Amino acid sequence: MRAKRFRTVAIALAVFLLLNTVVMALSLGNADGVWGDTTANCSAWATGPGDNPTATDEDSPSIQSPPTTDENQVRYGQPAGVSSGCGTFGNRSGFGFEGVEDVGTIAPYTDFLLGRITHYNNPIYASDFPFDQVTLSIAVDGILCEDGSVPQGS
Question: Percentage of the chain surpassing pLDDT 70?
Fold first, then answer.
């Protein structure tokens, strides 16, 4: 519940900050989300779809950078049935963020889809270092005002 509320607030804040300084229509390019570090046991990060990512890293979230156009993931926990070690990446629980490619033109005060968050719910053991929180940083490229100019913030 706490993680769900955090994700909702983080996405709402990102959208608010993007739209708060622009009063006319704007266009947005690709949205990409990068998961931060976590102290949970068996933490790992990946880029690529679902249970078949194209690249994984057991030590650092940097595998998700530079911004990509595929799903980025964070996984955690020792899979149930694994007596030692962390098992396979796909058998851990975790989160994925798939940003929208070419968000498009957005009229003022209009809701739009920035991306999709997925929870991968697998049975795990949390042991001494349970999952508590993780940051999700969302970057959007290609931001242009209605007249084609780059927005100027204060």
Answer: 82
